[in-house]
Amino acid sequence: MNIDKNKTISRMKTLTELHGAPGFEDEVQSYLKAEMEPYVDEFVYNRMGGFYGVKRAKVDNPKRVVVAAHMDEIGFMITHITKNGMLQFTNLGGVATDIWQGQRLKVKSRKNEEIIGIVANIPKHFRTGNEGAPKIEDLLLDIGCENQEEVLARGINIGDSIVPETPFIQLSEHRFASKAWDNRYGCLIGIELLELLKDVDLNFDLYVGANVQEEVGLRGARASAELIDPDVAFVVDCSPANDMKGKQHLSGELGKGTLIRIKDGTMILKPTFRDYLLDLANQFEISHQYYISPGGTDGGEIHKANIGIPTAVIGVCARYIHSTNAVFDMRDYTAARQLLTQSVTHLNEDKIKALQYK
């Protein structure tokens, strides 16, 4: 079975345009549940907001396998409303400080409306030449209000969330741009994995879902891992590419396939798991590339949970993540989806035990 490319692109657009800053992932959760429901037997939840759809095995005492994404994207939270109706904010997740002036951001109001504003910047006419990069806390979002009362009347208050206002667009045959591909990629691949496996009987319980608050320190992953206590885990996440001037060591190149993440700041891939992925990638001629990152994924928390959970990241890279736009390649996504599908369907009790203890 395969999935129509246009269906995948439609899901990409919907997912990346949803508003889901850390701690405010409810829109993403609602969409995922609706898309996953036809393919799962039930949902399980932790108390932080993470959830998983469960495809039950038809065997006694089945093993448990997890495919874990995260729902949140980088964003901001309102910290102050000025007397003349401007919004000050703090970051939710790791962002550069020098890219936001003049950009469009959107606030999620308490009336459940999205309100677009412009990040204030000093016109060249008024600059002295001594201005440095501002701190996030010094930026102002202009939503067109004239005073505090007008802001409050629109249902906006301190503590509300902000994300970039970035429509999903197709740049070329294979490449697209959007906000939040980190990590709506993982949400998308989870939906499509379940769809691809809808008529496949597995000999283990498969849990597919997403955690919250990854962008603010991998906060939601441990709650999910301890809820499910999986025997094996696959993390699906998007990573930064640094290929604008060509290949830069092991930092990922667009169009070169899925990432085999062998090391990052939070986890080292077990050699047995590495070889399992590489053998399948080579056997099925799946485009892939080695990847190393100073950052981390939810795998950093999952692999340490309970008595230890063998964990691998099946990822893709994208340019300019944690900004208003990311540029990514559809071919990398389809390679990742193929490797994830083969990695899940080739598991059995003996292989799981080998990944756990060898």
Automatic annotation (TrEMBL):
Belongs to the peptidase M42 family. PANTHER family: AMINOPEPTIDASE (PTHR32481), AMINOPEPTIDASE YPDE-RELATED (PTHR32481:SF0). It holds the Pfam family Peptidase_M42. It comes from Staphylococcus succinus. Gene3D superfamilies: Peptidase M42, domain 2 (2.40.30.40), Zn peptidases (3.40.630.10). The keyword Ribonucleoprotein does not apply. This is Peptidase M28. Keywords: Aminopeptidase, Hydrolase, Metal-binding, Protease. InterPro entries: Peptidase_M42, Peptidase_M42_aminopept, Peptidase_M42_dom2.
